[in-house]
Design a protein that fits this description.
With 465 residues, the protein is an alpha/beta fold. It contains 16 helices and 18 strands. Helix 2 crosses helix 3 and helix 14 packs across helix 15 (430-437).
């Protein structure tokens, strides 16, 4: 292998979990070299035939590597093959993809026993660090413990794979609204106002509010002013005047907002022009209740949509649901008990709540579906409620979002503090990804439901446990 000429060039050694997380990750390192140890290829080979969702990612990674290396000779593979240009990369210069037979290296290099795959990969990185002393050798892995062991073994540079992370801290995640200090109109001064039917729109200078995006809500400290950003350009922002009083007067299937955050959520949920509504917030803030109440209101009362499709991943990271008896809907029933519980709450004042629940489920055509069976479908004129979406990856969410056809509204709800997946964190969750990716899409709105309204007990637990 040729030595790198200076410390500005980097050599990234990829762990297997990086390619399983993003199969084409090797295209994201711009002009730097990417090293794939032979142990990584072996691990991909063992994973590709398993009957799990991760096997698909392993096969995609293998096919991608084959596409780059298919015409290379053994010597060229060891020297490095030029990587194809990545459309997302800003730099036009390209690095090399290098395959290293790490089995040839002595186990004593890193001081770790060589019978574990993680240790072989660390051993490979330490060997390359010694061989290329004038270059920066970086081990990239999603495994926290492997990063700790690599540093302990003497590797200077160890990193997590963060290319697909849109934010570094969950505290930076978009809430969907901005609070302006003081009185909004005192800060604006003069502005142009127009009336369109029953709606009032204000055109204010762009300098009035910083970093706005489409369908973001604007509040001030007066407890009266509320508006939603409908459009903006370099000079001005167009606001739809809503007012807090109007937000709090929204009603969906007998449900009224208990705070202004629920009012903003209902405003977005009941607006057919907003095709994607993302509800985030702590347990007990009303995400599922508002989503289901809005769906029933728009289907039964207003006749805008034809049916409700409720889906969520099962606790085994969207794996098989076959061990439960019955049809697909009967299999999904235990995971979707939150929906049936909510329906009972909405009809608890009826003479027979169970009969009312069953009647409404039939009248609104409520269907329970598994994430496993969403691929390939085209859902038309329906409300799709994706509950507990914090446990889904970005690719799983993409599968569901791309199923939505004309006249379909998708409601994604989730609590980033309650992630059950072993492979996801709040910043790598698919829910975080779509909040940031869709925040400037004119057909989407995000609302963080700040505040627990389930009960005094739930509120205390959320704040103190």
């Amino acid at each position: 292998m040729e030595k790198a000429s200076n410390l500005d060039s980097k050599m990234y050694v990829l762990d297997t979990n990086v390619l399983l997380h993003e199969p084409l990750a090797y295209l994201s390192f711009q002009e730097h070299d990417v090293v794939i140890p032979m142990t990584v290829l072996e691990e991909l080979d063992h994973i590709k035939d398993r009957k799990h969702d991760v096997s698909r990612d392993a096969r995609v990674a293998i096919r991608g590597l084959d596409e780059v290396l298919k015409d290379a000779s053994p010597e060229q593979m060891l020297q490095g093959v030029a990587l194809p240009s990545n459309k997302k990369a800003k730099s036009e210069s390209r690095g090399r993809l290098i395959t290293v037979n790490d089995h040839l290296f002595a186990d004593s290099i890193s001081g770790l026993p060589g019978n574990e795959n993680d240790h072989r990969i660390i051993n490979c990185a330490v060997h390359l660090q010694k061989q290329h002393s004038d270059s920066k050798v970086v081990l990239v892995t999603k495994d926290i413990n492997m990063r700790l062991k690599a540093k302990g073994a003497g590797l200077k540079f160890v990193e997590d794979y963060r290319t697909d992370q849109l934010i570094d801290d969950i505290a930076l995640l978009t809430s969907g609204y901005k609070k302006i200090e003081g009185d909004f109109w005192q800060q604006v001064g003069e502005c142009e106002t127009e009336q369109q039917g029953r709606d009032t729109y204000h055109h204010v200078a762009k300098s009035t509010i910083s970093d706005v995006f489409c369908n973001e809500y604007i509040l001030d400290e007066s407890d009266h002013f509320a508006a939603r950003v409908t459009s903006y350009d370099d000079k001005q922002i167009t606001l739809k005047d809503i007012s807090v009083e109007r937000l709090m007067s929204h009603t969906a299937w007998g449900v009224k907002p208990k705070n202004v955050y629920q009012g903003m959520a209902l405003d977005a949920l009941l607006d057919p022009s907003i095709e994607l509504v993302i509800l985030t917030g702590p347990a007990g803030c009303g995400k599922t209740l508002l989503a289901l109440a809005s769906a029933l209101e728009m289907i039964i009362e207003k006749g805008i949509y034809d049916k409700v499709i409720v889906t969520r991943n099962t606790p085994e990271i969207a794996e098989s649901i076959g061990f439960l008896p019955g049809t697909e809907e009967e299999k999904m029933a235990p995971w979707l008990a939150a929906i049936t519980d909510t329906l009972e709450v909405l009809h608890k004042g009826d003479e027979n709540p169970i009969s009312s629940r069953n009647y409404i489920m039939e009248k609104a055509n409520v269907q329970f579906k598994s994430v496993n069976f969403m691929r390939g479908r085209s859902i038309q004129n329906a409300v799709v409620i994706l509950d507990e979406s914090q446990n889904l990856t970005a690719s799983q969410l993409k599968t569901i979002i791309t199923r939505c056809g004309e006249g379909t509204k998708l409601i994604c709800s989730g609590n980033l503090a309650q992630i059950d997946s072993n492979y996801l964190t709040p910043v790598t969750s698919g829910l975080t990804y779509i909040v940031e990716r869709f925040k400037d899409f004119q057909g989407s709105a995000t609302v963080n439901l700040n505040g627990v309204v389930r009960s005094r007990l739930a509120s205390f637990a959320e704040e103190n446990l």
